[in-house]
Amino acid sequence: AVARVLILxxxxxxxxxxxxxxxxxxxxxxxxxxxxxxxxxxxxxxTAALCATRPNxxxxxxxxxxxxxxARADLCIGAGGMxxxxxxxxxxxxxxxxxxxxxxxxxAGLADSx
Length: 114
Hints:
alpha/beta
């Protein structure tokens, strides 16, 4: 069962993935949600506002221990950059989202390999 979701939109979240993912989880109020992003993220204000409305959501800015956040999560919604490989290494089930064209081929390879 999924009890804790980690949202990893990428350091700058230029695509606005964090607010979209938080909105997608609105129908699951019992989930605990961690959002990890850079402190200078473009969606920081919107993400912080959404986390403030959800009692089980925590925004982590420039977190020092990503491995701990990943290890606690049951599922990740994340961008298809370098953290996609880290999630694979840790065995974290993920909904990987292509947020930049240069991620498309790598994500297709990950999907093909299961």
